[in-house]
Amino acid sequence: MYKLAATIFFGPVMFGIAGCTTLHRELATQSVPPAAAVGTDKLPLAIAVLADPSMTFDYPHYWKAFVEDLNPGLANTLQSAFRGNFQNVSVVEAEKSASGADLVASPTLRMSDPMKLTVTFVDPRSRRIVAEVSSERSCDGNAPGVYDHIVTDLFLFTAVVVFPPSDSIITRQIQKHDADRFNAGFAPAVAQMASDIAYKASKDRNLQNFATPRDPPPAEAALNSL
Fold this sequence. Notes:
Layout: H1 2-7, H2 11-17, E1 23-26, E2 43-50, E3 56-59, E4 66-69, H3 73-82, E5 86-92, E6 103-110, E7 115-122, E8 129-137, H4 150-162, H5 167-203, H6 205-211, H7 218-225
Parallel strand pairs: 1-4, 2-5, 2-6
Antiparallel strand pairs: 3-4, 6-7, 7-8
Helix pairs in contact: 2-5, 3-5, 4-5
């Protein structure tokens, strides 16, 4: 991740020249192939992945160059990954919209190196946490696009030095390039973590037990047999 951050090097220089409004970037939905363990059937559960619209992070924290809007991209990526493991997977913006779900999958992302993505599976009726599954991954510093526009931004920076009135326009363009370079390495890492979590979920004992129909109490069984 530090290698990737090193490619986003125009931010502090440009902000030393002039400030500007925060740029927002949305995480693109990643297509994740099924990652269930070999010989594992889909768990007969309906999962609602929570896509909290307020889930964002500022990156880099000390530059405040742009804000990453994680949803709906993160939730849709998890939905893509979970489809190979669970019978039905949907995306909801709030838990109250998950009325037909057996479990609500709530993701959290810790920005560090490596990053840590955790999905908490909660029974919406009892509010009991059934399982927590995590995966860690660093941004992919060698992904396509990580080094795009470097030469272009160097020329743009030179243009600001030569013609300062162009600062606000050029700074905004360099910010966009910074955000694109970051996402080029960030998005594949999110997809890999989602795939890893899906694989672990397919083997998680707590989720398997939750999906297994429980035998009714003896009295209820006797009543049903009448």
